[in-house]
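Protocol step 4 of 6: structure prediction from sequence.
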Amino acid sequence: MTVSNIQLELIVKAKKYLQENFNKDINVDSSGNCFLCAWGISPGYAKLKLWHEGFKSIFKILKIICKDIISISNLHNYYLVNKSEINAKYEKLIVTWGFKNRFLPDGSYNDRYFKINSKDTENSLWFLINFDEKLPEKINKNIIILTKKNVRSKYNFLYLLKNITKKIISSKFSPKKFFHKAASSTEFSNIVCNNLMNFVKTDTKAIIMPYECQPFQNKIFKTCKKINKKIKTIGYVHAFPVGLPTNYISRDGAPEKLIINGHDQYYCFKEYLNWNNNQLKILPSTRFTKNFENMHGIIYLPLFINSPELVIKSLQNLILNNVDSNFSNLVIKNHPLTENSEEHLKLIKKINNLLENNKKISSEKKSDSKFSIFIGSTSSPIEALERGVKVIHICDDPVFQRYSNTLWPSIKAKKIDENTFEYELLKKGNLIQLGNNSKIFQEEYFN
């Protein structure tokens, strides 16, 4: 079977799995096992692997599940910052990821996804899920931050024991229901939702968030609708989906409006992922704008790396076999969330050594800085295509990562080897409509 046929088969299995569990009263909105994510190591990823590879990967799958359950012990120390300052009623809620470097000296927050400042959103409360341990010195009164306490012990196994015991009882000793509840992403959804619901009122008009169909996001939308059916629930697909977009299959807890940025996304979501016309709305991107951004001559690393050895081997084959391109001037760009990742730093060192060893060979070739190399599960190749970059994609798991013309009609993929592909954009603007209007969030996204 071709990669695209296998992807379609996995999508069909995923939709059937979600529907069957919904019919059995499983919490498909917040279950970690139902977050069928092809780009991150999780129980849902393990489920996809089991469908694709069968029981030959059973030990790897069991390791993922056990590690995920243990990681619940790392969720014991979340708390709210700036809660006491919230003394006004807000009509709208914006839930997004928080980064310390996005705060300005005046205490306002510049969001990287919606490209808007918190002080420019009238009658809106910002709920930030913090990525950084350090907090800004000043925080505006319309901002709440959910963050972790800086404690000596990263893991709290008493918390884990109590949590697992509660889940066994609430599952009525059903193993199936227990494993749908005993996932770190499910527990995280409980933490986020329980903290946020203190600020959702019966007269709240709308809630919006950058959306990846994560368990906490679906649970928030579902719970908001229980408080008030008239609350507008809005999700924004802020990054182009990966090659196998099973995490985006519509389910219980999905937002009533999903903002996407291109006709290919509309086609894929409607034809394959169970979304309907009334839910989908195509708008220019707020995150990716027409302003010039250099994406040439770069090797982009992903958030997760499955096989560093395969990446190095594929990159080496690419350099040795491509007689027309000069690789000597390529620079490596790490993922912004893995700056201190030992695994990523080791891979960067190996790639730099590879480039250095081939510098003499590369320097004899003609200079060509108009291409970039993208590794693993990442949506960056799509942005690069829209910006006129020649894209080479090294996939350490092609079925989960490679883009195909079947799901994304505006992409033409050329196979270089079993793990390396070159993409061509067939129609500009169909993948991502780059934005150019700073007011589009207020005028179109949040209305």
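Step 5 (inspection) to follow. The chain has 14 helices and 14 strands.
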